[in-house]
Amino acid sequence: LSHTLTILGVFVAFVLSAMTLKSVALDGARFNETLYTWMVVGGLKMEVGFLIDNLTAMMMCVVSFVSLMVHIYTIGYMEEDEGYNRFFSYISLFTFSMLMLVMSNNLLQLFFGWEAVGLVSYLLIGFWYNKPSATFANLKAFMVNRIGDFGFILGIGLIAAYTGTLNYSEIFGKAGELGALGFPGTDWMLVTVICICLFIGAMGKSAQFPLHVWLPDSMEGPTPISALIHAATMVTAGIFMVARMSPLFELSDTALNLILIIGAITALFMGFLGIIQNDIKRVVAYSTLSQLGYMTVALGASAYSVAVFHLMTHAFFKALLFLAAGSVIIGMHHNQDIRWMGAVRKYMPITWITSLVGSLALIGTPLFSGFYSKDSIIEAVHASHLPAAGFASFAVLAGVFVTAFYSFRMYFLVFHGKERYDQNPDAHSHAADEEPDPHGHHDDHSK
């Protein structure tokens, strides 16, 4: 019952999102209304409202489609798990929170969705709460995100204090006045301080250096979660928010330079870290960090449409790679170490093909979606006149080679070569535990 209800709900959401995208893209439809006033404090209105435009409609389709695929995949992946119903309730709540985040027309509702996805990701990363590593990982994710959210709420507070509104269109209407103000007591521009505070929020949620530390650890959750949260939806919330607030970011070159540098460091160095990982999910996690760095670099170069284009293409091929990794993990009886795999192609031909397609898209092979979005980012940075663009241009170009290296290192170690299952030092000590259970499942999911 739980999976029938949730999949039906997400399917309806996807169909409605697709219809919305069609009418927005083809017929130029727009919607921006406040449905409900929650409270008024002084002159500040706190409202619930929705804004549908090109950016929102595209995000709605990405979120609902990837979520639908993950829901369907979960039926098989989690069938042996005692927390089956709990899992479905969490992921459908996550989808609701993410849709609230992208459809909001004011900063209050955006912040509500922002915190709700943080809460649900905490529940999901620590889903196997009997496992100490999972509880530490979800605490780490929660704490690091609090740092980012503190900056984010300071930015929202400054906007509310100086414009007297939280509604996007009213804020953007007053952007010119904001751009003329200085920050009291300093020679900084007010808009620069606001933008940097907002971007700190994005650094936490979208795992940019140095607030990236929670994302690799969050691989302790079940694999469908990695696909949903760390590929397609939650980690892209920061990218979405900066793109949404772009009229403010355009007023501050200082903030754009900071975004370029942080994005460039993340894109290049997280790729280097991906090369030395041996856990199949961690390799894919570091590649997500690296690609989020690419999106951030595009934001810093003021190429907002390009950043969102890469967000969309990345959501699909990265979710595919995570789901393929989950398929391999189940086939390997929960062994995640790529050093003890090899020749999996013989046993899992479909996973072999899907992993190849995902990897080719990730490294930017011509005719695959990743090529067009990645190439556009490299061109956009190259054309940028900001001082930080030189370093960023080098980082995104070098990152292409690094990406190809770690992607195919993982691909060949897992699917080609000779079988190395018997060389796993852990396998022999666990053999006794595994024999009674035909599925190779046990209480400790880390084996």
Summarize the topology:
Elements: H1 2-27, E1 31-41, E2 44-52, H2 54-77, H3 84-103, H4 107-125, H5 132-163, H6 168-173, H7 175-180, H8 190-205, H9 214-217, H10 223-232, H11 237-244, H12 246-249, H13 253-275, H14 280-300, H15 304-331, H16 349-363, H17 369-383, H18 389-415, H19 425-434
Antiparallel strand pairs: 1-2
* Topology, number of strands: 2
Q: Name the helicity range.
A: over 70%
CA-CA gap between termini: 30 Å
Order of helices and strands: HEEHHHHHHHHHHHHHHHHHH
The gross shape turns out to be globular
- Mean pLDDT rating: 87
Query: What is the beta-strand fraction?
Result: under 5%
The total count of helices amounts to 19
Biggest β-sheet description: 2 strands, antiparallel
Compute the CA-based radius of gyration: 22 Å
Uncertain stretches of 5 or more adjacent residues: 430-447
Strand order of the largest sheet: 1-2
Structural class: mainly alpha
What does the model show?
The chain is mostly helical and 447 residues long. It has helices spanning 2-27, 54-77, 84-103, 107-125, 132-163, 168-173, 175-180, 190-205, 214-217, 223-232, 237-244, 246-249, 253-275, 280-300, 304-331, 349-363, 369-383, 389-415, 425-434, and strands at 31-41, 44-52. The radius of gyration is 22 Å and the shape is globular. The model is unreliable at 430-447 (pLDDT under 50).
